[in-house]
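seq/struct pair 1
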Amino acid sequence: MSDNPFTTFGGWFAEAQASEPNDPNAMILATAAPGGAPSARTVLMKAWDERGFVFYTNLDSRKSAELKQNPRAALLFYWKTLHRQVRIEGNISLVPDAEADAYFATRPRGSQLGAWTSTQSAPLPDRETFERAYEAMEARFLDKPVPRPPFWSGWRLTPAYFEFWQDQQFRLHDRITYTREGDGWTNGRLYP
């Protein structure tokens, strides 16, 4: 294990990319609802570096509403084939518009149109309504580039805490922690 949690994460993530059959970048995002109740869902990490971990979504979605109210969150990566998980906690903020624009431009056209079509987390009367709305977006942007919707962007979690968990025989698991202190990190261990 490195003294830098991002180095450790990079090694583990590379192994997950080589071994996980689907979506090694899938992570559980935990937020708090207005009354303090926990709320969790799976999102896909689309970028990471020492600034943090980025995912994209509709800014009017339930998760975004919760993050706007309480800009703290937790992430959980679970890689079953490796018997590993990584917990990350920290503050969250929107990515700059230029970064969101650049990522949006790399998405498949169908996903770009889907971002315009979905009023994420709002009630949907039936599937047909959604499909008709998608067809309307296809017509709206026919033969034109699809710009990023103003209500769609990315969130970046800036870590203050990491926990790396490795399964071991007889429940003698390894739990390594990193806690941010100023510009550096303090390492520790937890009983399994």
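seq/struct pair 2
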Amino acid sequence: MAIAGKVKAGKSTLLNAIIGEMVAATDAAECTKLVTWYQYAAAPRLTLFPRRGAPRALPASRRDGQLIIDLGRTQAEDVDRLVVDWPSRRLQATTLIDTPGIGSMTTENSERSTAFLLPEDEPAGADAVVYLMRHLHANDFEFLEAFSEFGATRAGGLNAIAVLSRADEIGGGRLDALQSARRVATRYRSDPRMLRLCQDVVSVAGLLAQAGRSLRQDEFGSFVTLAGATRDDADALLLSVDRFLVSGPREDALLPVATRQALLDRFGLFGVRLATTLVRQGSNSPDLLAAELVRRSGLDDLRNALESRFTQRRDLLKARTALQAVDYVLRREPLPQSRALRAEIERILAGNHEFVEMRLLSAIRSSSVTIPEAYQAEAERLLGANGVSPAERLGLVDDTDPRMLRAVTMETLDRWRRLSEHPVYPRAFTDAARTVVRSCEGILFQLPDRGSV
């Protein structure tokens, strides 16, 4: 899964938040110019893959909890990719790929991302993408459209999620900024243009999430000090960035200016304000404060979206990418058996029901197949738009009793069978309804046998 977006969208910061450790460089270091893969391994290891020559191991060190990667004398333009093996359970199900900023002032950086995410005539390196944006601009639409049509697996937006990645900046950094950002994300999510290009839109305060996942004891102590100051003194200090960094006897007696600068770098002014407020309201331990910062950041919403949209379909997304890669090789280097092999690939892509579901979902989202409004939301859900477990497809909670699951499935299956045979509806709808019927039959197949319930 690639994390993409324009410069300063917060890609590496969000990647650190997802993993829960400071493994991705977030400054202007050479590493931020590379396509960097983060994958699970039992022990840490860094491997550089140059454009020419053999891969080689790189030294690494930690400073203030941050992984420091030293490329030595190698220039970024001479590197194909960097692979970071890391023992994080967050990487066991999904390999994350950090990409340079799109639209970078440095042409090479932007082209490196574009070549990786939107190759002209070959399979992309990622099965899915999380696209970060600060606000929705025309060039964000352009990228999502291009990725939908030409990117990984060409799945018509079903392998993309959009993220408002600096949610704390919406609404001028007020304490209610995250609620404002969620409302904006909800509005984008209901935009038909966005529905066609991505599965979901969520808002995340990436810096807050990263800081919450890696909160240190000394930082918690600083917030306790700020919360314990008089309200007038604390509010005056938190008025603005300039005011927070003022060096004077009164301010320095509260917290040294170097400590305040470090807090600002790690949390941002919004994060400092929020953490101070939360300590006042009862988050009286590092664990409680960290958990509340992460909860409010929106990171859990993003994780849930990634789980239901991507992780549950990871085998399908990987299989589609692999089949397209084989097809690409057969087209580039034809063999006597190529025609038969390509026909078999086409048969699998056309006939496998999970691939049929993906195509129909894409067609519904793009309005190339029209579903009556009364049935569209249910059709998308049954096709797996909100997740592929039986409960998610049926719109029920995860711990629904198996008997109830079976009863609802049978009722739903019967209703969609009738729709698929109804003479009033056009052919395109009845064909789509038959696909939904097959999805309902698949749900029934996943449920325990009646006798074992």
